[in-house]
Amino acid sequence: MEWGMANRLAQLIQSDGHCLFLPVDHGYFQGPTRKLEEPRKTLEPLLPYADAVFITRGVLRSSVDPDKAKPIILRVSGGSSVVGKDLANEGITTSMEEAIRLNVAAVGISIFVGTEYEKESLLNLSKLVDDGERYGIPVMAVTAVGKELEKREARYLALASRIAAELGARVVKTYWCENFDKVTKGCPVPVVMAGGPKVDTQRQVFDFVYDGMQKGAVGVNLGRNIWQDEHPVAMIKALRAVIHKNATPKEAEEIYNSEKSKKK
Question: Residue 17: inside a domain, yes or no?
Answer without folding.
Answer: yes
